[in-house]
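Checklist before submission:
- one chain only
- standard amino acids only
- sequence pasted in full

Submission:
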Amino acid sequence: MKVAVVTDSTSDIPKEIAKKYGITIVPLNVHFDLDTYQDGINITSEEFYKKLVSGKIFPTTSAPSSGIFLETYKKLSENYDAIISIHVSSKTSATYNSALQASKEIKIPIEVIDSKVVSAALALIVIKIATYVKSSNNIKSIKSHAESLIQRTTIFFSLETLNFLIKGGRMGKAKGLIGSILKIKPILTFDDGEVNVYERIRSKRKAIEKIHELASSFAPYEDTAVIYSTDDTEPKKLGNLLQNFTKSKSVLSLQLGPVVGTYGGPNVIGFSGIKPDERDE
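Returned file contents:
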């Protein structure tokens, strides 16, 4: 059985990596007033952040329609026997529901999975599955492996400002921070599919130090990735640290694309890691 792997652009997987692993990426949309762009298709991250920081219009985002997923699945069904489709948390986007609706219209087996995370965490899971499908042709086994990866994946990040997260309405369980927006640089994570506060920090420097501390304390990892939005100076240092704790010794460096960047804003730093499977120890 030949299995296709699908995800969406909130994974922030670069085109060259998607091509290497045979991953199909369905883009979300970014809207600046009446202008609509497909994430990673007709707007680059560099172009997006320039518009975000210097422009007067705050962007909005939207999920792909079920029709876009239907078209994607139909095309893949011509060359594949099954599809596994892994997406951004259903609590932050309608993408998962669009994919699920479309999957019901296709004859070949399709497993649509809610990763409950976003960006680098989603990327690591999808890349691991893209490797796994080459040695497993059982769609149920692949789904089970994906669910195990989701349980073992963690993500922590720090934002320069919470303004973009608040404006975008993606505060999740972190809504309690709104009143103290000017006073803290919180460490955020994903908790049951929603953004949540891991720890309240008072300065950017201490937030970066805490991110490094978390990278060490949650080690070891099977695979890791660092995330950034506009400046990769500190994330590179974080990546060097993570290499010491990563089995593969390879740390992905992923720039937040336009959709995730809408809520993260400039100068984001963070990391994601997949913990080893205890059953293999």
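Reviewer check: Residues 3-27+64-151 form a domain with the Rossmann fold fold (CATH 3.40.50.10170).
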